[in-house]
């Protein structure tokens, strides 16, 4: 599985890249045919505390799943997004068996 990370409006540090890669590697345990994940980390220009958006687009053969989470930290957004992707992948896998 290939993970592409793009940072919008800020420079991403190595620790965050490693965290994203480690967290999304766990999604592959649920479905081994994942092609790639595109991660967009955006820093919104607002005064809200929750101004960090993590958007993930997961590609599997024949389908695409998109999850978008806005939180106080990128780590929290990636963690919640990865949880949602895991649930979506399990549902997708169940549909494939039918």
From TrEMBL:
Name this polypeptide is given: Ribosome-associated translation inhibitor RaiA
Q: Pfam families under this entry?
A: Ribosomal_S30AE
Please indicate which superkingdom the organism of origin belongs to.
Bacteria
Source organism (scientific name):
Myroides pelagicus
Query: What InterPro entries does UniProt report for this protein, alphabetically?
Result: RHF-like, RHF/RaiA
Spell out the SUPFAM superfamilies in the cross-references: Ribosome binding protein Y (YfiA homologue) (SSF69754)
Gene (UniProt): raiA
